[in-house]
Amino acid sequence: MAEDGGGDDLDAVARDIHAAQPDLVYVGLPLAKQITAIPRLRRAAPGSWFLGLGMSLSFAAGEVRRAPAWVQRTGLEWLWRLSQEPTRLWRRYLVEGLPLAAALFARALTRRREVAR
Q: pLDDT tens across 59-88, in order?
């Protein structure tokens, strides 16, 4: 696929998807490219489900090491990933992700208190 996740390569993939009309399409691209590619590909097969796999293929292939089991169990795998690729992930996790996580946590606390009353 083209570097920008578009162009002639994506058009060819869209034609193949249209011809196959699959129920499920796995998209193994980096997040930024998935965000661009999936809507374009969806037009070729509007009845299909599209699943963005992102980094999970690299984990499955053994190209990227997962966090130790204890880190995964404690829910801190995001911190492990951030330590492995800080340049690529700092904005996604710290600027975009933490405010969302804080809002979800606050909402959960509010609901828990309401139920307890």
A: 889 888 899 999 999 999 999 999 999 998
